[in-house]
Amino acid sequence: MSRRSAGPPPPPPGRVAVAGGVAELLGDADRDGSWVLLVDDTPQSHVDLADPTHLEFEYVRRMGHVLDTAAPEGAPLDVLHLGGGALTLARYVAVTRPGSRQRVVEVDEPLTELVRAHLPLPRGARVRVRAADARAGLAAAHTGGSDVVVCDVFAGARTPAHLTTAEFTTDVHRVLRPDGVYVANIADGPPLRFARAQVATLRAVFAEVCLVAEPGTFRGRRFGNLVAVASDAPLPVAALTRRCAGDPMPARVVEGDDLDRFTGDARPVTDADAAPSPEPPPGVFTR
């Protein structure tokens, strides 16, 4: 999946059965050349074929900020993506950091084929997609071979339990270089028990952790996406804070004592007691 197909892509086929349910590509009425990928009517990805640097979903934009601050501007990265969807962040890295080597682990091969056929990658993108479970793909990755690991995996609208644990996080740590960065999408709502436990899990493995979300989500007012960032190296919190504050929907970056208070008495999750992320309330993802 590293070369762009010749000529314009064929029109999207409507609703298509994939391994994870029923997928559909819908044109974005507000942005020419842009598409939304839905699986079982839940938006999974947004892609702007004309401008892959445009990140429509707020949490994806925040993950993009993490990628922007993971290395000097324009420097290529080795990135392992757990979860592919429509490859939005892989496209972003390919354009903002030419020469990057990217591997994507996506369990839903028919979904990847749909994306391959109708949403071609930018020219010159070095992206390889492997059809495998995210944890199995992680286990097969080389030790110390990645600058960044991105985890954005959902079965339906929930993160699978086996991708939430200290054992899984320890394997992420193994795959990263000493100054590498892990970024994960966490979906949760009041009272944020799942998110607090995820932070505790990351802190049990990594030296530095911060959490990014819009203030209403932090206060437990609504269900939403929180972006967790972890590394053994100091995190670029100031740069990340500036970028997140300048977004159309500004986000907070929480670290240190504030993150202590957020985490409270939450304990790390293990394989023995893991559960998937909470089911979102009805209508949360309605466009």
Commentary on this structure:
With 287 residues, the protein is of the alpha/beta class. The protein contains 9 helices and 12 strands. It has helices at 58-68, 88-96, 109-118, 134-140, 166-175, 193-203, 215-218, 237-245, 256-263; strands at 16-18, 21-27, 34-39, 42-48, 78-82, 101-105, 127-130, 146-151, 176-188, 208-213, 224-231, 252-254. The strands form 2 sheets. The protein has an 8-stranded mixed beta sheet with strand order 7-6-5-8-9-11-10-12, with helices on both faces. Helix 1 (58-68) runs parallel beside helix 2 (88-96). It is globular, with a radius of gyration of 18 Å. Residues 1-5 have low confidence and may be disordered.
